[in-house]
Amino acid sequence: MGLFDSLRISGSALTAQRLRMDVISSNIANAETTQTPEGGPYKVRKVVFTPIQMAGLGGNPLSQASAAGVAVTAIQNDETEPRLVYEPDHPNARPDGFVAYPNVDVVSEMVDMLSATRAYEANVTAVNAAKSMAQRALDIGR
Which end of the chain is more exposed for a tag (fewer CB within 10 A), N or C? Predict the structure, then answer.
């Protein structure tokens, strides 16, 4: 595995975690959205990751196929039932007086946000380590 393989792998993870943060932020921002253009309350979205497989990393056809990064393959809506709150005066109240709110669990979203942040930071550290190693290799050649 070469320097550029390491950078490509970490780069794919940085992109995936940034998208995950965007989705989490959207979920938190819409925690009280009771009406969407599609109708009904906002639906929580989750990011689905898949490992990228490459044979022969580093141009070496003899190396075994292994994970070579991560890709976002889907952003799925959570189809669980919305939570119902009795608010007969709300503009989006149903005839029975209940309002359908999104099933956003803000605490769970915050935990996911911390996880995404830590993964992003870890990949930034990996990129910086790869850059440092490359710089040291260049310094040896001087």
Answer: C
